[in-house]
Amino acid sequence: MFENLSERLSGVFDRLTKQGALSDEDVKTALREVRVALLEADVSLPVARDFVAKVQEQATGQAVTKSVTPGQQVVKIVHDALIDVLKGDSDPGKLKIDNPPAPILMVGLQGSGKTTTTAKLAKRLKERDGKRVLMASLDTNRPAAMEQLAILGNQIGVDTLPIVKGEDPVQIAKRAKTQASLGGYDVYMLDTAGRLHIDAELIAQAAAVRDVANPRETLLVVDGLTGQDAVNVATEFDDKIGVTGVVLTRMDGDGRGGAALSMRAVTGKPIRFVGLGEKMDAIETFEPDRIAGRILGMGDIVALVEKAQETIEAEQAERMMKRMMKGQFNMNDLRMQLEQMLQMGGMQGMMGMMPGMGKMAKQVEEAGFDDKILKQQIALIQSMTKRERANPQILQASRKKRIAAGSGMEVSDLNKLLKMHRQMGDMMKKMGRMGKGKMLRQAMK
Ligand code: GDP
């Protein structure tokens, strides 16, 4: 069995003493273990290597959160980075099925679970979205496959296109289209033929069907247990046919889900659904955090670090709030604010949430603030000396010039920042005088 990554890492980090920030060496040591864990989870070598390099860059120098070990912290960073790679569309489960009847093309190798998945998705569309679905099997080489779809259709109460002997896949696809239009169906699903391996004929057939059907979605079904093979299959299908998403089946098995990471990293195609069993309900929308947890095998640590970080952020925010209410709002505070804004999705989002700042959020928006500007402002503050940050009022012309030059910006940019700082400081003071009760009431308005 796999050795748990957390066990490995705790072994490594027990020997290290805790410092303020993760050192290059700490991170390297931890990531060596992470790489092994990824390979054991079936992630391909180049993907694991790239991934680890990226995390190395992110993690080094990151402040170590109180009450967790550096090892735990690295796991959290790795986990977040995994999610970053895995997540594709914002809503992977939403199929493009407007303009009825919408064709969905199902492709994949024989035995990948294509026919089962076609029926599972049809059932989902029918039950969750109230859609009328027609399914058609194009597997003219294997009459048993056509029968299988008809049986599944019966079982889930979804219509299948009647089987007509002697038709080729393109003819069947055309008939499905006509039938779907005439019959008032919202969606028609074309279950193409599979082979044991990709060959020219299979691809040519799928391409011909694609050209007549003009599918809104082309979903590639791959067996999640086949690891690297699954990735090769996906690359080839995508090159030749073009797919809009991947369904990973057999994720109920004891595979570690590494194929998902390789798949996403190599093909760039979003994983839309995962198959979790043979039953018709055993399909779910792809959730990156679940797969990330599974690849690492350590969801508990992630939750622990998240909690610790939340607590620390809340403490910091409260301390800052208290000082600000007393009118002590210096450049360090502003920088912290700016960094939080960056994290929370930009200035508008943040200000919109703060009491009394709705109007300012508008101004900020009109002034064209975005992440780039936030980063520039942070750079300006970073160019200041400690004393300047604590007392921005001492900034006269020569200091301003130095700071602007040091961060590659203009004095006018710095002046804008200082003006914003003053305005925010005034507002904080006002809020301080108002008192908490009144502030809350204002916020509720
Ligand atoms: P096709 O040749 O690609 O159409 O594959 P089928 O749909 O016929 O599936 C092959 C076998 O895999 C069947 O026995 C299915 O019940 C099974 N199967 C499909 N999806 C899953 C899944 O997500 N989990 C498990 N455990 N079995 C699956």
From TrEMBL:
It catalyses: GTP + H2O = GDP + phosphate + H(+). One of its GO terms (cellular component) is signal recognition particle. Belongs to the GTP-binding SRP family. SRP54 subfamily. SMART domains: AAA (SM00382), SRP54 (SM00962), SRP54_N (SM00963). GTP binds at residues 108-115, 191-195, 249-252. Part of the signal recognition particle protein translocation system, which is composed of SRP and FtsY. SRP is a ribonucleoprotein composed of Ffh and a 4.5S RNA molecule. This is Signal recognition particle protein. Involved in targeting and insertion of nascent membrane proteins into the cytoplasmic membrane. Binds to the hydrophobic signal sequence of the ribosome-nascent chain (RNC) as it emerges from the ribosomes. The SRP-RNC complex is then targeted to the cytoplasmic membrane where it interacts with the SRP receptor FtsY. Interaction with FtsY leads to the transfer of the RNC complex to the Sec translocase for insertion into the membrane, the hydrolysis of GTP by both Ffh and FtsY, and the dissociation of the SRP-FtsY complex into the individual components. Its EC number is 3.6.5.4.
